Amino acid sequence: MATPEYTPFVFLLLLFQSSVWGFPVCQTPQESPTCGYKSCHATKPGMLNVHLVPHTHDDVGWLKTVDQYFYGDRNDIQHAGVQYILDSVVDQLLKNPDRRFIYVETAFFYRWWKQQTDDMQNTVKQLVNEGRLEFVNGGWCMSDEATTHYSAVIDQMTMGLRFLNDTFGHCGRPRVAWHIDPFGHAREHASMFAQMGYDGFFFGRLDYQDRNRRMVAREQEMLWRASESLTPPMADLFTGILPNGYNPPEGFCWDQSCDDPPIRDDPDLEDYNVDDVVTRFLHIAHGQALVYKTNHIIMTMGSDFQYENANLWYKNLDKLIRYVNQMQSNGSEVNVLYSTPSCYLQELHRANLTWPLKGDDFFPYADSAHDFWTGYFTSRPALKRYERISNSYLQTCKQLEVLGGPISRKGPFGAGDSETLKKAMAVAQHHDAVSGTEKQHVANDYARKLANGWAHCQVLVSNTLSSLSGSSAPRVYCEHLNISVCPLTETMNVYNPLARPVSWPVRLPVNGTAYRISDVVPVSQATAAVRRGRGYAVNELLFQVQAPPLGYSTYSVSLLQNGPPSPQSSPLPRAPKASFSPQPSSLLSLCASIVTLRDFLSSLFCVCLSRYNASDGNNSESIQMSGAYIFRPNTSTPFIISKTAKIETLQNSVVQEVRQWFSPWVSQVVRLYTDSRALELEWTVGPVPIGDDLGKEVISRLDSSINSSGVFYTDSNGREVLQRRKDYRPTWNLRQSEPIAGNYYPINSRAYIKDDKDQLTVVTDRSQGGGSIQDGSLEIMLHRRLLYDDVRGVGEPLNETSDIYPEGLVVRGRHLLSLSPPATAADTHRPLAQEVVLQPSSMDFEKEFSGLQAVLPPAVHLLTVSQWDQDTVLLRLEHQYQASESKEHSQPVTVNLQKLFSTLDVLGVSEMNLSANQWKDEMTRLDWKAESGTHHTGVTNQLSAYSAL
Ligand SMILES: *[C@@H]1O[C@H](CO)[C@@H](O)[C@H](O)[C@H]1NC(C)=O
Ligand SMILES: *[C@@H]1O[C@H](CO)[C@@H](O)[C@H](O)[C@H]1NC(C)=O
Ligand SMILES: *[C@@H]1O[C@H](CO)[C@@H](O)[C@H](O)[C@H]1NC(C)=O
Ligand SMILES: *[C@@H]1O[C@H](CO)[C@@H](O)[C@H](O)[C@H]1NC(C)=O
Ligand SMILES: *[C@@H]1O[C@H](CO)[C@@H](O)[C@H](O)[C@H]1NC(C)=O
Ligand SMILES: [Zn+2]
């Protein structure tokens, strides 16, 4: 299949294994006369129209778990019960057909829906068909934008939107994306929303300086050109900033949780206040109209978990509308109406204006001079890693569900499914989940849900393996690779979820000392310390494996000799040499012991593990402290943990490594695998000491001779890369007030600095925050432990402990460093980043197998293979290079779908939008015109078009 135009993703529904030949029927959607834009209330062209949008913001976990929020459990923590909200709103909508409500989080709506009677379901369908209840956004949750990976965001959006389409059809499709709470906004999210068919996007939070400028310039509504590779308008998204976050205007909150006066409209009573309410309202409306462009303005009438007793809100809103509009007979030119974001959007579109163009993103977010929300880029690093590997395992699980067929879900190992992990991953994308900004007990709940999802997938995977191999021998999983002993049998297998072959270093914890085909290395001191007596393995098996695309390969790792390990008795000549003397910690001196590293690192001076001390609020400029959301070091100079390190070196046929101990709580392994394209830095941090009553934020800083001139690059949600410049924002003149925190950006999978000759790229294994504070330097925050709450609502210090680490959590992770000429750097780091995101998993299996007939071209990433219906599979192919990123790979590519899979016959193909809730040929979006000459410079020197399939 060849597509001439440039598209980044192609989304297809493949029909296979079906007895009936044919394409899925692409009917024109049944046009209900009243839902969607047609259901909007009339507005008055000559007047200022105020769109009141009743809404509730229901976090899919934050201070309480998602289940506690749904049922209204633990109201002692926070009064919030989503089931009552939906009950009450539906009831109130039925009382007056003018009323409107929007609902956002499908994770909650889905639970509620399942518990309703047929009658109630029909009633709700009626409300949806008439546009009185409208879904906006509609993903399973409202995802975080800084710390999520695009593949997991697409999955969670697909799940929510599919439920809405399956349940409500055409009228259930949201027209508007709605991210009112996330703490900064990613360009890749806007690009995805555009490709999911949304007509517009609204949000609440942006930098206070940016907002002030936009208010004066009336630029709070704009056209976001969200990709420098896609041809406009493919990734153009109309974007609006809401006037008051997502809260009602001051004095107009009529929820049971608010204290504003109700409308007292009995003229016989002394406290009659209609005139006062109307006057105040008109004042606010006129003020708001001054900072927006059209004669339409929007007011968000609701907030967190509001409308549990919806009568309070609606009774007062009915009156507000009546009394404000009555003034029209006395010459008032303000018209108030019940509305929704899409009805407001439709009026902006009708205004037929041109809009300022936005090319960069909305990071970092500061709500005041010393209050940068850049800490959560790293908060809860262990949860961030677990979320990332769970995504990898979910993709493997979905692939094996397709390759195995029905037996995968019900087979010799019992009933397995991918649904449980899909749902757990979907809630984990929430803006208080993977972001790390939830309470500790809620973080534990997300992790527990993921673990449960893994267990369900493991049954599915076992069933598929046994079906493909024809053997029902028990499967062995080697899961907790950093602690357990792998019970090795004769063979061991590796599954590769990527569509091209990979070579992968496998490390397996074992007891024995000598194995065929493999090197054995002793477990390092740092690893032994991390384990805390759990796990017994004293050695690690270390070997390189190759695995075919979407497939397995088998390795024989039989034991040659068992018994207690002793280096002397090891038959391997390359036993590690330990030298435990303090050494300067700079890499150059390390290089003396590893020859190959010297070449690799000729322009890298130092990998310095350092720390900032957190601000405790005791500061003359501001009382803001560092916390789960906010990063605020108390000085701008990081402290190097130790200038010397105890080191141990190791060299064998697979790897050369230097193990460095800087302090009892900070260590690092510098590792170079034979034939590797990258140097691996494995960091271990914790328990972060707090005996000095100072919170600490630990960074890894790479100092190089690269002449980066204040410029560096970070990815957006793991996909396109944006240019960053120190103390600079592309769209306004920044007054920098936090020299470190104000220069931090989210890094989801990679970051780099470069000059004419060299590019130093770091690929991360989870989302982290980082910046380039000095030229030639790139720093990445690894772990944070803080003693104060940062007063943004979570109400706990970020002071992570666990059963195993009661005195403070220990976290380990990897950075992969590559150094290449800038022109070819992407050829290395793009595939490398994909390999870190989609990891091979090792499991027991008897024969080599590949689900693909042929390897996909290097530019093409197989993003999704997932069972859709009984006879259909959802397939997403992605061109993974930006337009001018690689001479070799940024070119259009052709893939033959007919000959793609080895086990499936493709009977038909139908193209869909990115979120798979619309057929491509039905997809029409509102078109918007950009002002000419507003494209701000500063994010340039990349890309002009995406290459395609
Ligand atoms: C309109 O103005 C008249 C005369 O000032 C006044 O009597 C009447 O109450 C006003 N109506 C409203 C709705 O305020
Ligand atoms: C929109 O504005 C353009 C000029 O900018 C005009 O040519 C066009 O007719 C207008 N369209 C509508 C529907 O008013
Ligand atoms: C080997 O591993 C097992 C657990 O799998 C453990 O019980 C045993 O003590 C270990 N042996 C040695 C020598 O560490
Ligand atoms: C942080 O955790 C440690 C270990 O549980 C505890 O002793 C300490 O009191 C906690 N500090 C704060 C400020 O919560
Ligand atoms: C959406 O749902 C309708 C009604 O069930 C169905 O006909 C249509 O094919 C669905 N659309 C997609 C893209 O799945
Ligand atoms: Zn929220």
UniProtKB/TrEMBL annotation:
GO terms for biological process: mannose metabolic process. It catalyses: Hydrolysis of terminal, non-reducing alpha-D-mannose residues in alpha-D-mannosides. GO terms for cellular component: lysosome. Residues 371-450 form the Glycoside hydrolase family 38 central domain. Its cofactor is Zn(2+). InterPro entries: Gal_mutarotase_sf_dom, GH38_C, Glyco_hydro/deAcase_b/a-brl, Glyco_hydro_38_C, Glyco_hydro_38_cen, Glyco_hydro_38_cen_sf, Glyco_hydro_38_N, Glyco_hydro_38_N_sf. Belongs to the glycosyl hydrolase 38 family. This is Alpha-mannosidase.
